[in-house]
Amino acid sequence: MPGLKQKSIALYHWLDRRLGFIKPITEASEHPIPSNSASWWYVFGSAATVILMLQVVTGILLALVYTPTARDAWNSLNFLNHGLTLGWFLRALHGWGSDFMIAIVLIHMTQVFMFGAYKFPRELTWIVGVFLLLLTLGMAFTGQVLRFDQDAYWGLGIGASIMGRVPWIGAWLVHFMLGGPIIGAATFSRFFALHVFIIPGILIALVGVHVWMVLRLGINEWPMPGRLVRRSTYLQEYEAEVHKDGVPFVPDAAWKDVTFSAAIILAIMACAIFFGPIGPSGPPDPTIIQTVPKPDLPFLWIYSIFALAPPHLETPLLLITPIAVICAMLGLPLYAGEGEKHWSRRPVAVLMVCVIAVSLSILTSLGEHPPWSPVMNAWSADPVQPKYLKDRTPLERRGAIVFQQMQCRNCHSLDGVGGKRGPDLNRVATQMTESELIRQVLQGSGNMPAYGSALSPQETTALVRFLETLNGNQMPARNLARPLAEGTPLAEPQQGHKEE
Amino acid sequence: MKNPLKDLTNDPIVENPMNEPSQHSRRKFLFKVALLLNGAVGAVLAVPVLGYVFGPFFRKNSSYNSWVPVGNLEQFPPGETRLGRYRNPMGTPADGQTRTLPCWVRHITKNQFQVFAINCAHMDCPVHWFPQSKLFMCPCHGGVYYQDGAVAAGPPPRGLYQYKYRIVGNQLLIWAGELPTLSTEASIARPGCNSCQV
C-alpha cells in the first residue's frame, strides 16, 4: 500500500509543521546515552511515571462516580465496590497503584543514591525528586482520607493531634488542617481539593521538570570504582563517553523500561484482582468507637514510632525529625556533589541504606501487628485456657474470673493468647512473689495501671492466688530478703535450684 | 529571532534590525511599568484571596464552642460512666455522620459530673471505658486512664480532656465544638479542676 504510506508521511509533515514538537521529541527520545546505562537497574523512574499515568486515569474514572462530600463519600465507595460493574476493580487498581507507586519511587531513589546519580550536574534533579517523593506520600495520605471510613476519620484526628503539638501556632495549624474547629464537611473538602487539584498539579509539573532535566543532563553513566566526579572535568568526560560508546535511548534502553513498566502494571492488576479494593472499613461515624484506627501501609512505620518513642521525646521527635530528614535529603547533593559514585567505595552510604531499610521494615511489620496496643476484646473473647483451671481450688478459679473480668487479658497474654502490651503471665509466679504480685496489682507501675480502687480485698486475694498457680511447673519465686530477716542462711534457695 | 511560522510559509524572512528588542528602550520601559502595575494588581487581589483562605482561622478559640445537650440526666445513672452523644454546634447537613460526636459522661454523685472528650490525649484516638476495671483504654498506642481521667499508663502526656458542663432542667449541657488537641484545649478544663462546673 504505497499510497497509504505516502499519505501517512504527508499527514506527519502536515502535523509537524504546525505543532513543531514531533521532530524534537523524536530526536530527544533517540538521544545517545552511555551504553552501560541501558540497564535493568535504570527502569524504575520510567515505571513510576507510568504508574502516575495509571493513577491519573483511574482517579479521573473514579471521580466520575465518587461523591466528594463527608456525608456521601462512604456510600459512594460502597456503591463503587458493590453496585457498579467493575467499580471494585477500578478502586482496587487505584489503591494498589498507590502502594506500588510509593514502593517504586523508594526503589528508584535508593538506586539513584547507590549509583551516585545525584552528584554533579544532577543535583537539582535529585532535589526535585525529593519533592516528588513527598508529594507522592502526600497523595497517599490525602487518598486515605478520601476513603472516608473509620480509619480515615480517626487518621485525621491523629494528624490534628500532631499539628496540635507544634508550639505557639499549634491551634491555628489544627484549624487550618481541619478547615474549622472539628472534623467535618470542610475537612473533607480540603483534602479532596488537595488530592485532586493541588498535589497532582504540582506533582505533574515537577515530573515534567524532572524528566526534562534527565534529558538535558543525560542519563547517569554506570559508576566505576575510582572514577571520581569533578565539576571541572565531568561534563567533558561524559560527552566523550557518550560520543565514543553511546547508544540511542530508544530503542536500546527503552525496551527494558517499557517491558518493566508493563510487568509492573500487570502486577498491579494481579493485586487488584486477587486482593480486591482497599476498604472502605466501617462508616465515618465517630460514635461507633469499637474501632482500632490504623494508618495505611506506607505510614505504619510512623505509627510504630509514636508507640515506641519515649513519651518525653515524642514531640521533639515528631516535629524536628521530619524537617531534619527532609533537609538532609535536600542538602545531600550540595554536600556530596563530587567524588566517588560507586557503592563499593561508599561504605557509609551502603550502611545508611541498610539501616534505613531494616528499620523501616521492622517498624512496618511491628505496625502490622502492634504489640503495644491492648487487644480491646481479649477479656471477653479469649477465655482462660482449661489447663490453667484444672485441679485448682475454688478461690483460684474465682481469681481466673477476676483476671478475665478486669480486662487483664487486654494487655497480658496466657500462653501467647491475648494482648501483648504487658508480659505474658504464663510463668509470672516464677518471677514474682505473692507480696510482689499484690503490690503490682494494687499499685501498678511502669505501663500497668493500679487496680487498687477497682478491686475488693477478696478479689485481690483471689486474683493473686490464681496468678500464683501460673508457674509453668517450675519453682515459684522466693523472697530473698525474708530468710535474711529471719536469720536463715541464704544457701537454702540455691539448694532448691540444685535439687530441681 | 526565528519566526515560528517560517516552516509553514517557506518565504524568506527579511531581518529588520529595528525588530531587535534592544532597540526599543521606550517600550521596554513601558513594559516594566506594566509589570509593576500588574504586580500591584496582584498584591491587591491577594488580600481577599488570603482573607478567604486564612480568615476563618483568625478567631478566638472560645468562639467555636457552644452549650450543647448531651442527653437527659436519666441517661447517666449516678456512679456510672456512659457514652454521651452531642451534635457539633457548628455542623452542617453536609457533615453527615461526623456531625454527631461522642463523649464519656461520668456521673459521680447527685449533680457532680465529669464529661471527658472521647479523644486520647496522646493521638486523639477514641478511648473505651471498661466499667469492671474502671479504666479508659486507648486502642492505638495503649494509653490508659483512671475513672477520673488521670493517666494510669502509657504514652499520654496528660489526663483526658474534659468539657465544662452545666445542668439545665433535666438536661446535661457541655461546652463543646472544637476537636481537643494539646493546643486546642483552651476551652477545656484539666481533670481534677474545680472550675469544671459552670
Features:
heterodimer; A: 500 residues; mainly alpha; two-stranded antiparallel sheet; 22 helices; 6 strands; 64% helix; 3% strand; elongated; B: alpha+beta; four-stranded antiparallel β-sheet; disordered C terminus
Structural commentary:
The complex is a heterodimer of chains A (500) and B (198). Chain A is 64% helix and 3% strand. Chain A is built from 22 helices and six strands. Chain A has helices at 2-19, 22-29, 44-63, 73-83, 87-114, 123-146, 150-163, 170-178, 185-217, 234-245, 249-275, 300-308, 311-335, 347-368, 378-381, 394-405, 408-411, 428-431, 434-443, 457-468, 481-485, 491-499, and strands at 32-34, 228-229, 246-248, 339-340, 413-414, 417-418. Chain A starts with a helix and ends with a helix. By secondary structure, chain B is an alpha+beta fold. Chain B has two helices and eleven strands; from the N terminus they run ααβββββββββββ. Chain B has helices at residues 6-9, 25-54, and strands at 66-72, 81-87, 100-109, 112-117, 128-130, 135-137, 144-146, 151-153, 162-163, 165-168, 171-176. Chain B has a four-stranded antiparallel beta sheet with strand order 2-3-4-9, with no helix packed on it. Chains A and B meet through helix 7, helix 8, helix 12 and helix 13 of A and strand 3 of B.
Biggest β-sheet of chain B, characterized? 4 strands, antiparallel
- Shape, per Cα inertia axes of chain A: elongated
How big is the Rg of chain A? 31 Å
Specify the number of helices of chain B.
2
Tell me the radius of gyration of chain B: 31 Å
Low-confidence stretches of chain B: 186-198
- Fraction of residues in helix of chain B: 10-25%
Counted beta strands of chain A: 6
The average pLDDT value of chain B, as a whole number, equals 84
Protein structure class of chain B: alpha+beta
For the largest beta-sheet of chain A, the strand count, sense and barrel status come to: 2 strands, antiparallel
Q: How many individual β-strands of chain B?
A: 11
